């Protein structure tokens, strides 16, 4: 380690040195040694009054627009619906999501077309609050407007895996905008219901990026006395945590919908869910420690134990006997766990990870297995060791790192 630091002549107190130590101690096991490379960065951020474009005016996009507008930033909120844009600019209300809330006057709605290159180039920050399944199409269009030498700070808050490709958001960004943009991207994840953030209830999240300076910029932008950010350098683990917890929230909802009680939710679903998440993440190539953070156990606990969670609600209604199609048609908002379960099933099959709860959620959602049968099957499994972390083969993470141009 010291030899390496000496060879690259890095000052012992520099950011790079601190990052190098962090990578060795806490990042994804297949993470690169970043100090050997030029780190892609966004344009310098102003001290205050950043110009922020939020893409996606659903519950979370609107709530984050309010959080930043409330902190004196100049916020633009893109909606793909002309009526939402018009009404928002006249009344500072969103007609579809968080409908009771009076939004900050610092927010201007834009749309329904995606803003053009000149507008994008003016922005200090682009924040994507678009559900995972629609990200690729929007990034493909936006890429034409991105000046790679004058990149805005890029923030992603979606929690899912893309159907068909099993891609994490990092890979979607690399495919559409290139590896350098993906390396500069930052990811926010953690226990954070939109409706509580707009009411300024104390909330904490994880912020991760391969480029530590970018994670710090995102943390600085969001940090408030009622909103704390904790930074890290395992974006793959952070992304997997956010996507996987949605699958286990569906399982917890099913258990409650069937009428099972606290023991079942706490032990069988939440704790075993955390063990499964950690095994899947480790086999994928993420750091097991990441799953013990806000984006992992923090968000798992939140969504598995609250009817405010849409994923929990989907599970609860399934447990009560409602068909999936009816639940999706009437939910009024996205439950990422439903589509993400497909990708998770393919990933655990490919990696050979034992994840019996995720398997049962898949069977209920896509093979008509009764929720009661799924829970009984879980209880009938033979006794096993509590935690058998698989070896860190890290196949998918390695492939992703190679795609980003890091040697692994
Ligand atoms: N709601 C929360 O509390 C919360 C918290 C943390 C993270 N998230 C994550 O944020 C993401 C967005 O969730 P949300 O709660 O805002 O969802 P939502 O259902 O409230 O809103 C979805 C938004 O996506 C837009 N949309 C739909 N199809 C689109 C397309 N083809 N192109 C572009 N936009 C499209 C809709 O117009 C809407 O504005 C999800 O990945 C979710 O997991 C949500
Ligand atoms: O409503 P859910 O289930 O999508 O959960 C929202 C957020 O992920 C909570 O952190």
From TrEMBL:
Binding locations of substrate: 159, 310-311
Gene Ontology CC terms, in alphabetical order: cytosol
Active-site residues, Swiss-Prot/TrEMBL: 245 (proton acceptor)
Pfam families linked: NAD_Gly3P_dh_C, NAD_Gly3P_dh_N
GO terms (BP aspect): carbohydrate metabolic process; glycerol-3-phosphate catabolic process
Highest taxon above the source species: Eukaryota
E.C. number: 1.1.1.8
Enzyme class: oxidoreductase
GO MF entries: glycerol-3-phosphate dehydrogenase (NAD+) activity; NAD binding
Catalytic reactions of this protein: sn-glycerol 3-phosphate + NAD(+) = dihydroxyacetone phosphate + NADH + H(+)
Keywords: NAD, Oxidoreductase
Organism: Mycena venus
Protein name stated in the entry: Glycerol-3-phosphate dehydrogenase [NAD(+)]
């Amino acid at each position: 380690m010291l030899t390496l630091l000496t060879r690259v002549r890095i000052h012992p107190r520099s950011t790079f040195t601190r990052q190098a130590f962090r990578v060795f101690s806490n990042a994804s096991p297949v993470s690169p040694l970043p100090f050997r490379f030029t780190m892609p960065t966004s344009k310098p951020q102003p001290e205050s009054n950043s110009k922020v474009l939020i893409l996606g005016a659903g519950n979370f996009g609107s709530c984050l627009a309010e959080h930043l507008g409330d902190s004196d930033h100049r916020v633009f909120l893109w909606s793909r619906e002309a009526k939402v844009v018009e009404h928002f600019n006249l009344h500072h209300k969103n007609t579809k999501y968080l409908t009771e809330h009076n939004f900050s006057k610092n927010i201007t709605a834009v749309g329904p077309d995606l803003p053009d290159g000149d507008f994008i180039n003016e922005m200090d920050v682009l924040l994507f609050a678009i559900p995972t399944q629609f990200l690729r199409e929007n990034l493909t269009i936006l890429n034409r407007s991105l000046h790679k030498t004058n990149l805005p700070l890029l923030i992603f808050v979606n929690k899912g895996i893309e159907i068909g490709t099993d891609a994490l958001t990092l890979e979607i960004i690399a495919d559409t905008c290139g590896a350098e943009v993906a390396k500069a991207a930052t990811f926010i994840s953690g226990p954070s219901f939109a409706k509580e953030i707009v009411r300024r209830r104390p909330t904490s999240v994880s912020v991760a990026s391969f480029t530590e300076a970018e994670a710090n910029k995102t943390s600085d932008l969001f940090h408030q006395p009622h909103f704390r950010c904790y930074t890290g350098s395992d974006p793959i683990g952070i992304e997997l945590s956010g996507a996987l917890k949605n699958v286990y929230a569906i399982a917890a909802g099913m258990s409650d919908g069937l009428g099972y009680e606290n023991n079942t939710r706490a032990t069988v679903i939440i704790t075993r869910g955390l063990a499964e998440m950690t095994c899947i993440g480790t086999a994928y190539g993420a750091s097991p420690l990441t799953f013990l953070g806000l984006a992992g156990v923090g968000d798992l606990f939140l969504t598995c134990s609250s009817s405010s969670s849409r994923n929990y609600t989907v599970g609860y209604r399934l447990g009560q006997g409602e068909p999936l199609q009816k639940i999706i048609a009437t939910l009024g908002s996205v439950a990422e766990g439903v589509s993400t379960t497909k990708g998770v099933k393919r990933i655990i099959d490919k990696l050979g990870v034992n994840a019996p709860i995720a398997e049962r959620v898949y069977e209920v959602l896509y093979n008509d297995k009764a929720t009661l049968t799924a829970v009984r099957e879980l209880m009938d499994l033979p006794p096993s060791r509590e935690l058998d972390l698989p070896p860190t083969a890290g196949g998918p993470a390695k492939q992703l790192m190679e795609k980003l141009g890091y040697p692994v």
